[in-house]
Design goal:
The chain is mainly alpha-helical. The chain is 66% helix and 0% strand. It has helices at 2-10, 14-21, 46-85. It is elongated and about 75 Å long.
Length: 86
């Protein structure tokens, strides 16, 4: 889960890395993880918007993994209780 989250959040940095490694005559377009409306220009404040989206995606993935593991623990506990009663 962590590897997928890291890979997903690093995708927007690929065009910037390619501009350094394999430069073109013009710069490549910036990629965004999610499209959102901001009251400012996203291209000028790319790193701040990317940081906010990385925090949001990481938090969401953490919550998803936590809820899933707690759900599995509850199910294992219930199955154990049922096997004791039988």
């Amino acid at each position: 889960m962590v590897n997928v989250t890291i890979g997903f959040t690093l995708v927007p940095t690929v065009p910037m890395l390619l501009d350094v490694i394999i430069p073109l005559n013009d710069s490549r377009d910036k990629l965004f993880l999610l499209r959102a409306k901001y009251p400012f220009n996203e291209d000028e404040h790319f790193f701040l918007t990317h940081l906010g989206l990385v925090i949001s995606v990481t938090g969401g993935a953490t919550i998803l993994a936590t809820v899933d593991s707690v759900n599995a623990s509850v199910i294992y506990h219930l199955v154990g209780l049922i096997s004791i009663v039988k």
